[in-house]
Write a structure and sequence with these properties.
Layout: H1 3-15, E1 16-17, E2 28-34, H2 38-41, H3 45-55, E3 60-66, H4 70-79, E4 97-101, H5 111-117, E5 133-137, E6 154-156, H6 164-172, H7 179-186, E7 191-192, E8 220-221, E9 230-233, E10 235-236, H8 247-250, E11 255-256, H9 259-270, E12 275-279, H10 289-298, E13 302-305, H11 315-323, E14 328-334, H12 338-343, H13 350-362, E15 367-374, H14 381-405, E16 411-417, H15 434-449, E17 454-457, H16 461-471, H17 481-485, H18 490-497, H19 501-505, H20 526-537
């Protein structure tokens, strides 16, 4: 056993608060994998919540695995020592079940290395009964499971709380992996079996009442993205209906935790950290957000929020954030022109955007980050010009506030390509071609470079194309993952495999065309998505979800 690898693991465990250090027992042993680095996995509230749920069972033992960092990988390569768990340093292949928690499509490329180091065959048809079963969960599992269909044995379609208990009850009582086991799993709600026949399309499961669960930071680790705070889930889903946003649709209907439930979680969090990070797709839409923030501050804590609601931002909210030490506020106009904001159903106008910016500037927030998309359907140069014009108006507001306080802040634009995601109204669109996107980014970079104290950042166009390919793909693209993980060129690998890359990424789809991801059912109507797509192209807005609404079908209107 490599002493250096064990030393690295033990050092990280020593920095964690609330860690369960497991003894190797006869309980059902689950290897929970987050296919990226430790600091990202331990910042993921969904990953932590699943870890907590599994270890709350007396008959299960769950331990964590992450992508090795460069030093660890060198040690593994040098010594040939297998990938081991954080808690008890047990090899991956020795577990009964491997549970993948995947939130980002590009993390698929990390899985071949993890399986290789864990000495577990990557593809399901290469694994015998001696190897652990592989279960695929997380956002990617119920957005589009098909790219990993040849890798995994079982897919969890939906949120963990209503599914895990029934799944584990069946697995724990299975003497052998045979047709009887698959038959039991096939009828379980929220379970998709890529290699076995099912008589129905698995329907996404969701927790109706969030108060029946707890979702917060159960382990506090210093060397993570949010290591200075304790995270608390405020809500799931979003009522706004932005037409490009997958999270806004696959977490329907929007739900929120009660104030009492949240304050119990806050009290637990304040025992470990002085700052509470409020997490959710639409934190500011919570009906009790003001009293919640006041209660945190009255308890001697500070507040951090994952999103700000531009059309309802108040000076009191900004004051709370400033008092909590917030230095950079992030807001998402998404598009510079009103035409494109209406197309994506953003329900924001320029006056509301500038009003929110003014409140943040007057409230003492030093830096501002703006999120924009490029390559939205029917985008023209005029839309880009309006994006620059809006940025200039925002910059001037920020400049004047900086001069008044004697300390200039910065404005940063995060500009990234629009990627048509499954189960959204814009799923029929194609992604704009790479060459055109690069030209638009060059224009924006040049324009922003002339603005003092203003910067533009963007992710690699190549990474965005890869994300589109992986998020919109079918199961045949999974066979490319090992070569892609080794740094293979996407275009060349597709050509060699006889796969038309443009068919997956840039091609516009027809109304009646079936999609790979429709092997699962989100609960809302495909016709509803198409109608929303047409409304977007016509520049028509749609109202947010409301109580008793039956437009999409999730709440019983299909």
């Amino acid at each position: 056993m490599s002493h250096r690898i064990i030393q690295i693991i033990q050092q990280r465990l020593a920095k964690e608060v609330g860690t369960i250090r497991h003894a190797w027992t006869d309980r059902y042993r689950i290897a929970l994998i987050y296919p990226n680095f430790y600091h990202q996995g331990m910042s993921n509230l969904g990953f932590q919540s699943v870890y907590h749920l599994l270890n709350n069972r007396e008959d299960c033992l769950c331990e964590r695995f992450f992508l090795p960092d460069d030093d660890e990988l060198k040690e593994h390569r040098k010594t040939g020592f297998p990938l081991v768990s954080y808690e008890s340093q047990q090899p991956l292949a020795d577990f009964d079940l491997i549970a993948l928690s995947v939130s980002f499509e590009n993390d698929y490329l990390n899985l071949p290395l993890i399986f290789e180091l864990g000495r577990v065959p990557f593809f399901a048809d290469d694994r015998t009964a001696d190897y652990p079963l592989v279960v695929f969960g997380g956002v990617c599992a119920f957005l589009n499971p098909e790219p990993l269909a040849d890798v995994v044995d079982v897919v969890v379609v939906g949120e963990a709380e209503p599914i895990l208990s029934g799944l584990l009850d069946i697995l724990l009582h299975a003497v052998v992996v045979d047709e009887s086991l698959w038959g039991q799993l096939a009828v379980l709600p929220g379970i998709y079996l890529p290699h076995h026949p099912q008589t129905h399309t698995p329907l996404r499961q969701f927790l109706t009442d969030l108060d029946y669960s707890v979702s917060r930071s159960f382990i506090h680790a210093e060397d993570t993205e949010f290591g200075d705070m304790s995270l608390t889930e405020v809500s799931r889903g979003c009522s706004r209906g932005c037409r490009f946003c997958a999270a806004g649709y696959i977490y329907l209907p929007p739900r929120e935790r009660s104030l009492d439930n949240l304050l119990n979680q806050v009290d637990e969090g304040l025992c470990q950290r002085n700052k509470i990070g409020l997490v959710g797709a639409a934190v500011a839409d919570h009906s009790q957000i003001d009293p919640l923030q006041r209660e945190i501050i009255d308890r001697g804590g500070q507040v951090s929020v994952s999103s700000l609601r531009l059309d309802a931002l108040r000076a009191s909210e900004v004051a709370s954030l400033h008092a909590s030490g917030l230095r950079t506020a992030a807001i998402a106009p998404e598009a510079g022109s009103q035409r494109l904001r209406d197309l994506i159903n953003k329900n924001l106008d320029e006056e509301q955007i500038l009003h929110a910016v003014q409140l943040l500037a007057d409230g003492g927030i030093r830096n501002l980050k703006l999120y924009f998309l490029i390559g939205l359907p029917n985008e023209t140069q005029v839309d880009l010009d309006e994006l620059i014009a809006l940025t200039e108006k925002i910059r001037l507001i920020w400049r004047e506030a900086g001069r008044a306080r004697g300390q200039m802040g910065s404005v940063t634009l995060s500009v990234n390509p629009f990627i048509p995601k499954p189960f959204t109204p814009l799923q029929w669109c194609g992604m704009e071609p790479e060459k055109s996107l690069k030209k638009k980014l060059r224009f924006l970079h040049a324009a922003i470079a002339r603005m003092p104290n203003t910067d533009l950042i963007s992710e690699s166009i190549r990474c965005s194309v890869l994300q589109a390919f992986l998020s919109r793909g079918d199961r045949q693209i999974g066979r490319l993952l090992p070569d892609l993980a080794e740094g293979g060129n996407l275009k060349q690998l597709c050509k060699k495999a006889g796969i038309a890359l443009d068919d997956y990424v840039t091609r516009e789809r027809g109304q009646d065309e079936s999609f790979p991801w429709e092997v699962i059912d989100q609960g809302f109507s495909r016709d509803y998505l198409w109608r929303e797509y047409q409304r977007g192209l016509q520049g028509k807005l749609s109202p947010p979800c409301s109580a008793g609404c039956t437009r999409c079908g999730v709440c019983g209107g299909r």
